[in-house]
Amino acid sequence: MTYHFELRMKVRDYECDLQGIVNNANYQHYTEHTRHEFLLSEGVSFADLHARGIDAVVARMTMAFKTPLRSGDEFISRLALRKDGLKYIFQQDIFRAADERPVLRSTVEAVCLVNGRLGTCDELDATFNKYICAE
Prior knowledge:
Layout: E1 5-10, H1 24-41, H2 46-51, E2 54-65, E3 74-84, E4 87-96, E5 102-114, E6 117-119, H3 122-132
Antiparallel strand pairs: 1-3, 2-5, 3-4, 4-5, 5-6
């Protein structure tokens, strides 16, 4: 797979549960942070979009857990993007940095609410065009 963006992060102690592994809910935080950083790398502020009445929201997410992360582990969160109708579909995979072992495979479907109504966002379409058209 060709990824369009990647972000390195490190597991913090408080993200782990009693078993000493990252609690499953934190993987959703990791993928969300990656999407926000991807937008910022493209010059798009998630907060600025919201202030203008444009909200990109998650409509569906699937996650398959492969290898647990533990406190102190460094990992790489990678993102690829395509579009299907109104949906932006992010393939977001996480790999343990030390050995590139797959940690998480996820698909996130996002849609835009423009002034509270489901619709297209010309700004995001223009920003993502180079990735969507490259497929």
